[in-house]
Design a protein that fits this description.
Chains A, B: Homodimer. 2 copies of one chain form a homodimer. By secondary structure, chain A is an alpha/beta fold. Chain A is built from 18 helices and 16 strands. An 8-stranded mixed beta sheet of chain A has the order 4-11-10-9-8-5-6-7, with helices on both faces.
């Protein structure tokens, strides 16, 4: 849970902050002894004056909810006195009842990032979202209306766990031109690719099992693998994708149960695995009989260069489980993704899907089916492939203009992201408040790393921000980097670096 | 996977049967040694002539896929010769890689039931679906159009894992008149109540933990609890709901981690827990600090008698986790349910929800929000409460007329189901093919039992079938019971009873 400020409200900002912190203390989310973020930092993240935070903290202190300790900062006080009058005391000690499987910490750095990113005055490069102004909203209005008019009763009903049969067929045909040969029964429709990852992890991993993942990689996958109790085997990524040679070196010793890769326009680095490495990865997987999840949300968004076949098209041994989604090529709101793979896996996943949520919204499935089979998705993709390169070029030009010498960056051939590195050992987490103060947000790279690496890296998304905001956003970011450099030169950096894991 | 026949196809029915069995043998779903159902039984279930099944089996036998054994029936042959030419051999021994968590057998009895139920010539009392002809389709067309017109960009976007904030608020207000006091932050929107159950089970149960469940109960809950490795403690249900006294007797000894109950218009029995038992159950849960999941999909559908407050309204100790859905009171296709409960649980579940599928379709959430806040849901419920009692009365009158003496049944005060018992020790699973032959389907009660009980029971749904189909459907069912009785009197019953767990 984040602190969200409603700037249109008549409730003063300091009261909003105090009330939200109070709720989180009452609920037990902030346990006694938790250190609240320093006033300056919270003010920067929220985009408010420091006095506002000071007043909020004073109010909470007056109520006995927090206490200031010299040298330890502001700490959440003993909660036994916190039950509001009228609230029945809970008979259940909830935190003691939760299973370890759900004991996944929210990443405070990401919470900061999302919070900054949601401020209306901030230009955000932090998201993984497509351009909302390109959503085919008028077409979708027509399609949904047509669907309910023609088949409302059946499309508002339950539907097979495996997916709406015509959509399974449409997806199998739609991916066939990339060389992937799947029939309708080899395709499972899921409620977004996150659910696909979850089902795959549940079906194939037990606590203690090892998963080879790229480092860095999609953080939703890291969360899924951690939630099922798997151990992560990080394999670094370079400009040709996962360093398969390093995996070859350790596979016999570590025996991973699963290999997870985003080979094409990778999230977060934007790099694409070379054909040679793809073939070596498949040979390795076949030799050791390790399934490979190929996560491919961005593959259709190539802006330059020759396309390389997906792993699923090169696979001669049935080792690849292909995962994709319409969230990046259409929009995320329908929650439609799919898995294509060997039929025994699809059938097993369908049983699990039924247990997890019965089925996927059939109306949304119908709309995606119609969008694909009427050729609208291919036309939409052409439109995206015309618009996104302009945004990418603007971002690269702005980086060139403003950030040369203080940032290094990649030039992706497709997808959503430019990957950057701070020079001189600066940390992206220290850059975040400086950037927030100047009205720009980015995704800190360390959150995408399964290990402690990547502290100097950041991910910049170029598809979501308005095209005219890209240059000023990069200018603000470069300013923030310069500010961080001068803070460090003045010796403030080392003090700030000791502030570990602020909660808000 | 079921055998589904397309009667409009030019492919002969026997070929359709053979091809589908062939696919299931190739995929490994039907492993070598699996006994196929006897020809007569499969013919009855599919609604085809016995010759059709004989021809299908002959074709598979000619291909070496199945073999006939005297005394053992028809058996799936060795699979090593089954790879079709052109299909790459899989490098992965999939069945050996699946985790035990997913090792949930499809219930063959239910598969039979669903199969019969889906035949166009069959009157089905087997489903748990609301009347499709009462879906407010025109209103939903308008709402979805309005939503996309006004806020398309944000409603096709990602949304908070906890749910669309206005819907959380609307749900909290909408359930308040029943005496449940929850704020918006105490409500989690989920993709249908099945997902709610799954998240609760994952958050609160580890393998080996004990869950007290009603016997019989909702079978999707049994599947969830089994999938997370829990052990079930069945507590019988009588006309006043769960026999709480029996739970009181064993709770100290068995120490359940969770109590799961459907106290109002229970699925499958239709019974409602008395107020006295509700209070005893809550006292017991508070004393032993055991959370109670109150599953309440049908509570708003009372047709007679005084309403009894939900457990969540009577709860003084914060032990109840209230679960409900719009699937039964509106329609299932939007996949919208919710959990209301103590905030630490809601926050923990939100983290898990994010891992499982990120968020719930925001457009569907908006539509449900608008439907509730504009008073349309209350109006719709009044309409359902006018229509459904007529269907219930028709069913009860038809039972009176046709089934007196061969069936016993309940008279529910609300909900979707009439619960029946066969007299003279007949088994519902033996009734199914007789009913299928006569064009009527029901849900066998034993599937809802966590133990081996209930073989003589059946669940009849009165909301889904067209109102004019209810009387003829019950007449067919009574005929089937009479036929089963005469088969048994002729000594065939004991032979049939030896056919255990047919796969199809």
């Amino acid at each position: 849970m984040l602190i969200e400020l409603d700037r249109t409200s008549t409730v003063p900002l300091y009261r909003q902050i105090a009330e939200q912190l109070r709720a989180r203390i009452s609920s037990g989310e902030l346990v006694p002894g938790t250190r609240l973020p320093p006033e300056r930092r919270l003010a920067a993240v929220l985009g408010v004056n420091r006095t506002t935070v000071v007043n909020a903290y004073r109010e909470l202190a007056a109520d006995g909810l927090i206490v200031g300790h010299v040298g330890r900062g502001t700490i959440v006080a003993d909660p036994s006195r916190l039950h509001e009058p009228g609230t029945p005391a809970s008979g259940i000690p909830w935190p003691q009842l939760f299973t370890p499987a759900t004991d996944v910490m929210n990443d405070p750095l990401l919470q900061d990032t999302m919070l900054v990113s949601s401020r209306p005055d901030v230009i955000t490069f932090a998201t993984g979202m497509p351009a909302p102004e390109l959503y085919p909203i008028a077409t979708m209005r027509q399609l949904l209306d047509e669907a309910l008019h023609q088949a409302g009763q059946s499309l508002l009903q339950y539907c097979p766990a495996e997916g709406y049969p015509p959509l399974r067929e449409a997806l199998a045909s739609w991916i066939a031109p990339s060389g992937m040969r799947f029939g309708p029964d080899d395709v499972l429709v899921v409620a977004g690719s996150q659910q696909g990852l979850y089902l795959l992890a549940r079906a194939l991993l037990e606590p203690g099992d090892i998963v080879a993942v790229e480092s860095p990689t999609y953080l939703g996958a890291l969360q899924v693998f951690r939630a099922v109790g798997a151990r992560l085997l990080p394999i670094p990524v370079d400009q040709h994708g996962m360093r398969v040679g390093l995996l070859e070196d350790v596979v016999a010793r570590r025996r991973p149960k699963l290999i997870y890769t985003l080979p094409t326009f990778q999230n977060p680095t934007g790099t694409t695995m070379s054909r040679d490495r793809r073939e070596r990865l498949l040979a390795l997987a076949a030799r050791y009989q390790v399934p490979v999840i190929e996560d491919d949300p961005y593959g259709a968004l190539r802006y330059a260069g020759e396309s390389i076949p997906p792993l699923a098209a090169l696979d001669q041994h049935g080792v690849v489980l292909y995962l994709s989604t319409v969230s990046k090529i259409l929009f995320p709101g329908f929650r439609i993704g799919w898995i294509a793979g060997p039929r025994p896996v699809i059938e097993r996943l369908a049983i699990l899907k039924q247990i997890v949520d019965l089925d996927t919204n059939p109306l949304a499935q119908w709309a995606v089916w119609a969008f694909i089979t009427r050729g609208l998705l291919d036309a939409h993709l052409e439109r995206l492939r015309r618009h996104y390169p302009e945004r990418l070029e603007r971002m690269l030009a702005a980086l060139e203009r403003y950030a040369t010498g203080v940032l290094e960056w990649t030039r992706p051939a497709g997808g959503f992201y430019v990957w950057c590195r701070l020079t001189d050992g600066l940390r992206a987490r220290d850059l975040l408040p400086e950037a927030a103060r100047r009205g720009v947000a980015f995704a800190p790279g360390e959150s995408f790393h399964p290990d402690d690496a990547g502290t100097g890296t950041l991910r910049l998304n170029f598809t979501f921000p308005p095209v005219t905001a890209i240059e000023p956003g990069i200018a603000r970011l470069a300013e923030a980097v310069q500010a961080l450099r001068s803070i460090r030169l003045n010796g403030e950096g080392s003090r700030r670096a000791r502030v570990v894991a602020p909660i808000v």
